[in-house]
Amino acid sequence: MTTADLPTEETASIFDADELRAWLRLAHAKGLRPLALRTLLGAFGGPLEVLSESFASLAETVDARAAEAVLAPPGDIEGVPFEHYIEAALAWASDAGNHVLTLADAAYPQALLTMPDPPPLLYAKGRLDLLQTRAVAIVGSRHATPQGLEDARRFARVLSDAGLAVVSGPALGIDASAHRGALEGATGTVSVIGTGADLVYPAAHHTLAHEIARDGALLSEWPLGTPARSANFPQRNRLIAGLSGGVLIVEAAMRSGSLITARLANEMGRDVFAIPGSIHAPLSQGCHRLIKQGAKLVETPEDVLEEFGFSPATARAAAAKRARPRPASASWASATLHDAPISDDASRVLAALGHAPSTLEILATRTDLDSAVLQGALLELELSGRVAALAGGRYTAVERS
């Protein structure tokens, strides 16, 4: 597919009311699984044709339970009477940048069609071209370390500069950092959300969500008005995996939702990448487990690019783009401070930190500095962006690209 062939807002399908009604009725019919609906559409054509079939014909094609779900009167959708929901969906889709995509649309993400049970209907906000762009998912812990946040942002920025869209969820931590890095890059980002496309969750990401809707894309399979429910997120994770050619786990504990995304990606034949960390760090344990199970250990963004078929020279050229001027932000301002000279005591503390978080007691033992000098050196390192304070009175070195 060439750039000229990529779907745009102008080429997205425009529904008539009857067609949209039929798609919404089937997509949100209780008890009708996406795989069964895809089978029916393959057998009979569009949604209007499926709804016109007899119970016997439908049951013969799928099963009696699916046939009953198709022919049942449409119920409320998220507490809204069906006819009122149709009106609300039409009004939402009429706003600039909003799209309702179905399996019949050219704008529907082609990567999802390789799944056995792609959602029959998607709600999208923003750039439709990103839904057809080669993509890598970057996911990880909500409670990430400063180093993990920086790694997610840096990897996402380089991969975006190289031409890959970055896919993630809207969660705090690694996901949000990946989106910000991708927005700083040349290609952009796709946020797959577990709520209705008209809601922002978490609320703290209201500004980020608007930036993604403007410069990237937001995608949801859930009806408008759907609130955050824990049961929705594993299903959301399968879309993150499905949209991507590979999934990179930056930081993850042993019981992390990111590991679900990695498992789903592996089941779909996607690559799984993981960044290793300290053996003492809880948020490295999930990554180390994945590596033991066959995930590809990566240390640089170029490791991922090479797995996506970029030659080493191309990968290096993409990495070189990191040096280009960027919009001013707190992150880039601290990067400038990071290059400023530091005192001998601060250098001593930085060397003592190594690559694993350390407490004041450990640093005092390693450096032989008294408490006042040690804390002064740590403050100097924090202000220069070289060290970050963690929960539990620990400190960690922060690497910068």
Automatic annotation (TrEMBL):
Family matches, as Pfam families: DNA_processg_A (PF02481), WHD_DprA (PF17782)
Name used for this protein in its record: DNA protecting protein DprA
GO biological process terms held by the UniProt record: DNA-mediated transformation
PANTHER family cross-referenced by the UniProt entry: PROTEIN SMF
Occurrences of domain Smf/DprA SLOG (ranges): 100-308
DprA winged helix domain sequence ranges: 339-393
Family, similarity comment: Belongs to the DprA/Smf family.
Organism: Caballeronia fortuita
